[in-house]
């Protein structure tokens, strides 16, 4: 034991170990520790934590923005889809309405044309009848005139009427 | 004994005579604890205070240059510590572990500055020149065993406090000596005996942690100082510039590596003793 003690003293002597110097160095180290803890590590760690928190908040905000953007996109797409469906429905309705109007107009036109044709036919018929009547009268007059010239007889009203009727009957036939 | 062993080796004539301990400003007085390494430790403390204040004054969400650098360091270290001890313990132990890392790193690299270990008093050879520096004005704290041992002791106290707080005294005893594997019967008893023995070894290794941590750090850094001083004394004026040049890069790496090793081991010690599951008793990383 004494030998170990002697060796320890020898080493302490060789390397200048002394309690006073030892405690002085420890005190200096504690001073460094206190200084760094107060002026360096504390504020720096707080700042790092603050920055980490800020980055985390930023990330959270970014995620929220991305979520909102996706939601807005979805909403926009839904609105677009609805608008497209509405537009298609309106176009179809307009198309149907146009077709109905066209059909009605067509029917009206056909009806008008038929009316015009019927009226034209009636007018032509009337004109034909008038012409025929005029022709018959003219023809009767000519026959009466010819008959009176050939016979030299002045035809009375009764003869004229009979000749006219016979002529008209023959012309009509 | 150790120094006499060193002096008796065949390498001793080649090695520069870098003292194994820091010089005292006020010898044989009540202020003898004020050493050159304590002086540098105070300078480092001032530097760190200045840098910390610069980095954390007018902090903004979009960081300025110094703030950005400090944030990078803090974030990186916190990630490493959190990855080892877990999210629950990390906020508690991070300030101390980060302080240890930064303090050791700055101290190690401070030793590479021109003038550190070479400006001082000695046997004069001319105006402002000495044959050999006997009293170096500046000596990095990590080349003083008092500082290295102080750091290791501080870490040991913190480790003990956190361990007892997290798992309790009984939990620590069970964790150290308790059998693992869930075996029962005769096999269980045999395994329990083995784990009891392992626990005793574990206690020894825990007690020696401050010594291994401090000597590893001190040894590596003082060795680097010796190498640089030795190289600087070779080959005249030009050689004194060119010869140590590659070793500066190596010492930059060693300084970083030692800071990492010290911090990492301290972190792992905390993780091992506070883990609630059955992890193996991995012990004593070696460099």
Structural class of chain A: mainly alpha
Q: Of all protein chain pairs, which has the greatest interface, and how many residues does each chain bring to it?
A: A-B, 35 and 50 residues
* Alpha carbon gap, first and last residue of chain B: 25 Å
Tell me the series of helices and strands of chain B, N- to C-terminal.
Answer: HHHHEEHHHH
Rounded mean pLDDT score of chain A? 88
Query: How many H/I helical runs of chain A?
Result: 3
In one word, what is the shape of chain B? globular
Please report the distance between the alpha carbons of the first and last residues of chain A.
174 Å
The domain tally of chain A reads 1
List keywords for this structure.
heterodimer; A: 173 residues; mainly alpha; 3 helices; 0% strand; B: 287 residues; two-stranded antiparallel ribbon; 8 helices; globular; disordered C terminus
Describe the structure.
The complex is a heterodimer of chains A (173) and B (287). By secondary structure, chain A is an all-alpha fold. Chain A has one domain. In chain A, 94% of the residues lie in helices and 0% in strands. Chain A is rod-shaped and about 200 Å long. Chain B starts with a helix and ends in a 13-residue tail after the last helix. Chain B has 287 residues and is mainly alpha-helical. Chain B is globular, with a radius of gyration of 23 Å. A two-stranded antiparallel sheet of chain B has the order 1-2. Chain B has one domain (2-274). The interface between A and B is large, with 35 and 50 residues.
């Amino acid at each position: 034991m004494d030998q170990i003690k002697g060796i320890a003293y020898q080493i302490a002597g060789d390397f200048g170990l002394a309690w006073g110097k030892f405690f002085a160095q420890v005190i200096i180290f504690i001073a460094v520790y206190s200084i760094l803890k107060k002026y360096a590590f504390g504020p720096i760690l707080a700042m790092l934590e603050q920055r980490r928190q800020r980055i985390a908040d930023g990330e959270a905000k970014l995620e929220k923005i991305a979520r909102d953007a996706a939601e807005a996109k979805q909403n926009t797409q839904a609105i677009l889809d609805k608008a497209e469906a509405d537009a298609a429905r309106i176009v179809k309705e307009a198309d149907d309405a146009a077709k109905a109007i066209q059909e009605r107009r067509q029917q009206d036109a056909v009806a008008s044309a038929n009316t015009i044709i019927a009226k034209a036919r009636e007018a032509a018929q009337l004109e034909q009848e008038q012409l025929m009547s005029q022709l018959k009268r003219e023809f009767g007059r000519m026959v009466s005139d010819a008959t009176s010239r050939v016979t030299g007889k002045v035809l009375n009203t009764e003869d004229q009427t009979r000749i006219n009727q016979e002529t008209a009957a023959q012309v009509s036939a | 004994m150790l120094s006499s062993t060193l002096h008796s080796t065949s390498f001793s004539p080649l090695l520069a005579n870098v003292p194994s301990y820091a010089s005292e400003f006020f010898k044989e007085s009540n202020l003898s604890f004020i050493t050159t390494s304590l002086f540098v430790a105070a300078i480092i403390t001032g530097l760190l205070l200045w840098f910390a204040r610069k980095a954390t004054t007018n902090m903004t969400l979009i960081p300025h240059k110094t703030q950005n650098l400090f944030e990078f360091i803090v974030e990186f270290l916190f990630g490493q510590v959190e990855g080892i001890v877990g999210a629950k313990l990390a906020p508690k132990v991070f300030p101390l572990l980060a302080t240890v890392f930064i303090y050791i790193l700055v101290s190690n690299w401070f030793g590479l500055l021109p003038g550190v270990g070479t400006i001082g008093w000695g046997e004069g050879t001319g105006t402002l020149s000495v044959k050999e520096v006997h009293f170096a004005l500046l000596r990095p704290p990590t080349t003083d065993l008092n500082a290295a041992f102080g750091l290791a002791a501080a870490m040991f106290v913190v480790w003990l406090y956190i361990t007892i707080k997290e798992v309790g005294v009984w939990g620590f005893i069970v964790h150290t000596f308790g059998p693992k594997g869930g075996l029962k019967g005769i096999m269980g008893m045999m395994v329990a005996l083995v784990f009891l023995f392992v626990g005793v070894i574990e206690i020894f290794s825990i007690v020696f942690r401050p010594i291994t941590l401090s000597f590893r750090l001190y040894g590596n850094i003082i060795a680097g100082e010796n190498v640089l001083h030795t190289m600087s004394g070779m080959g005249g004026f030009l050689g004194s510039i060119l010869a140590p040049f590659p070793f500066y890069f190596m010492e930059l790496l060693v300084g970083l590596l030692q800071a990492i090793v010290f911090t990492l081991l301290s972190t792992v010690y905390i993780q091992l003793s506070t883990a609630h599951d059955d992890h193996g008793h991995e012990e004593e990383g070696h460099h």
